[in-house]
Structures
1.
Amino acid sequence: MVEIIVSIIFFLLLAGWYLSFLASRLDVLHHRVETSWAHLDAQLQRRAALALEIANSKAVDPATSLVLTAAAYQAREANIVQRSDAEIALSQSLRLILADEVSVPSGLEVELINSLNALSEKISVGITIHTEAVQSAQSLRSKLLFKIFRLAGHAPLPMRYSFEDDIL
């Protein structure tokens, strides 16, 4: 009888430890999603600032400057609901300027173009990292054990944004 009680207590402790381990793992994944989003958001804000610098350059014609300035300000000031549309608009505006070598304004500083290209590569990497983190968290949260024991608590389900597919 004592052996059965000890076995049950051991099993319950083991199950409790395992559930605690799984909850900690999910918490780490949620933290990874948050930090990857913060890093990506900082890069997108830098891209908007760089777009404003390009728009204020003397080499850009006034119409292009107006479109690029509006898109950059919209991307910087958009709330989370409007963020995807604003980032897509900024990407499209930047594509208009950088579509090919002929359409790039001749007086536009090479530094700005190189900075934008380097930042675009960093943003692509940031999007990949954020997407993988979101997929990992969503995959883990979709398992039955996480749903039954509510191991995610009240944390919102991590999500991807539609602009992540359309960024430069």
Note: The mean pLDDT is 89.
2.
Amino acid sequence: MGMTVDSARVGPFTARVRLSVASLLISAVLCGCAAPPPGGTVSGNPSRVSPRPAFSTPAVPERGSATPAEPGVRMDRRVSGRVVSVNPALRFVVMDFPVWQMPALDQRLNIYRNEQKIGEVKVTGPTRDTTVAGDLVAGEARLGDEVRE
């Protein structure tokens, strides 16, 4: 009572399905490649200009050049962290920073307590996750003091 399938009936159907899928894929690829360049025209018609992207990256001004004030919220890019450990005998501190504001090695940072500058630290490393060690160059430090540029 085995079930048999008529190979003559399945073969042409399978071939038609394969041909249809292949033609759809080829047409999708060709349509995707026909996108006009930015600022170009759609389908060669000069009266229909292609739409501009919704978001564009602003030009980065050169360092030291004046830039006009732009409305909106800007992220504070200055390095700012907290002292999480102090070794006064060996004059080094361990500081914790947000991930996006890690200081560079050999960078000098100021130590503040109650908005008063009380010391200076040189970032020496090593770093682990968001913490980094530094040598006290001047002044002192305590747990919780702010470290910033």
Note: The two ends are 85 Å apart (CA to CA).
3.
Amino acid sequence: MDNKSFAASYIEEIDAEYTATRKCIERIPESVYDFKPHPKSMEMGYLTFLVAEIPLWVAKMVEDGVIDFVTFEHFQTRETAALVKHFDENIQRAKEALQNASEEDFNRDFQLKNGGQLLYAQPMIAAIGSTINHWVHHRGQLTVYMRLNDIAVPSVYGPSADDKTF
């Protein structure tokens, strides 16, 4: 498979996950951002931000080849509408980065760093797929948090107990 085919496949996958993810983010009220199901768990607000922000990682990976936890700028808000807008922008930016990626972009390694220290490097093609899987994983966590807070869980891959439309 050539790199443009990988880009098209990843864009298709992002599009397939977009609607359910957006519905989750839209339903999280700021009043539950501090909720944690366990002391070792992340807060619901952080998890919601993470789900909204991971598509931006895809863009940064392709554009820069590196993400550094220390220098990566996180979006700051406690307003649901602003977070949903940010998510939509991140989706668009990820898709544009993939569409505009060169052969060189896809053939280099992605590097994850923490304060300049290399945590790991991975071929870009694999890193993009892993990041999309990571995004879907955290959305799954978010749906559990939603259920624990009596927030209607949207249909993801089929009807949910709360949203029987498909």
Note: The first helix runs from residue 3 to 27.
